[in-house]
Structure formats: structure tokens, C-alpha cells
Specification:
Shape: globular
Number of helices: 4
Structural class: alpha+beta
Strand content: 15-25%
Number of strands: 3
Radius of gyration: 14 Å
Order of helices and strands: HEEEHHH
Oligomer: single chain
Bound molecules: zinc ion
Largest sheet: 3 strands, antiparallel
Length: 144
């Protein structure tokens, strides 16, 4: 295993063991449940939004390290951002794990999940939280 792989593994395990923005969000006006039965992952996403910006976001969940680390990293990245920017990041992240594109600098530590592209069975683990965010965007009326 190369140095970069070791670093990526460490990032994933750190977010899995100590997820950021974990727990229910009091006052959230959107709540989306996502599940990935093929692996047994669950993510419940709470969003506080004014319709333009993600003022706050938290999640609860259980499942494999990839699914929970992806959710943790996602909340860290999109918190405080306008929906347009969050949705652009979602597209970039999906291009990486689904299509094997190179991670953009804007994705930050989410680059740690780039290797998931080669593990077809785990792609749904990595995209679970992002699909929940997409659903939340639909419910917020910012995505058709
Ligand atoms: Zn999983």
C-alpha cells in the first residue's frame, strides 16, 4: 500500500470513528432518510435551509466506514454553502466515485474516497449521503 493510500485510509477511519456534524439537528426544516440495502448502510440527513443556502446540516447513521465517512466529510464540506455550490460538489464527487474522474481540489479530503471507484460494490456506500443531499435539494425546491 502506498503512502497516499495509507493517508486516505486514515482520513476515512478518522471520520468513521469520530464523525463530524453527527446527531439530530434541532430546528432542521428538512429530513431525508437514505439507505443502501446492499451493504446495510443508513444515513438520516437533517438540513436547516432558508431555501438558498445550507445554513446547517447534520446526520445520523450506521453502516460501513465508507458510507459514514462520506456522510461526515460531506456535511463538513457543504455546511454554510449555497445549494448551487453544494450540488456542484455533489456532481464532482459522483464523477470521481462513479465515473473514475480525478478529484477536484474543491472536494478536499473527499479525495480519500476516490479509490471506491474501483470497488463497484461500494460505490453506493460512498454516494448514499450525497443522494440524500440531492433529495433534500429537491424538497427545498432548488432541484427539479
Ligand atoms: Zn457500505
Amino acid at each position: 500500500m502506498g503512502l497516499l493510500d495509507e493517508l486516505y485510509k486514515e482520513i476515512i477511519l478518522r471520520h468513521y470513528k469520530s464523525p463530524r456534524n453527527f446527531g439530530e439537528l434541532p430546528g432542521a426544516n428538512l429530513r431525508v432518510m437514505g439507505d443502501n440495502p446492499s451493504c446495510g448502510d443508513q444515513v438520516e440527513l437533517f438540513v436547516l435551509t432558508d431555501g438558498t443556502r445550507i445554513a446547517d446540516v447534520r446526520f445520523r447513521g450506521q453502516g460501513c466506514a465508507i458510507s459514514q465517512a462520506s456522510a461526515s466529510l460531506m456535511t463538513e464540506l457543504v455546511k454554510g454553502k449555497p445549494w448551487t455550490e453544494a450540488l456542484a460538489l455533489k456532481q464532482q464527487f459522483k464523477a470521481v466515485v462513479v465515473d473514475g474522474a480525478a478529484p477536484t481540489p474543491a472536494l478536499g479530503d473527499l479525495a480519500a474516497l476516490a479509490g471506491v471507484h474501483k470497488l463497484a460494490a461500494r460505490v453506493k456506500c460512498a454516494t448514499l449521503a450525497w443522494n440524500a443531499l440531492e433529495q433534500a435539494a429537491r424538497e427545498a425546491g432548488v432541484l427539479d
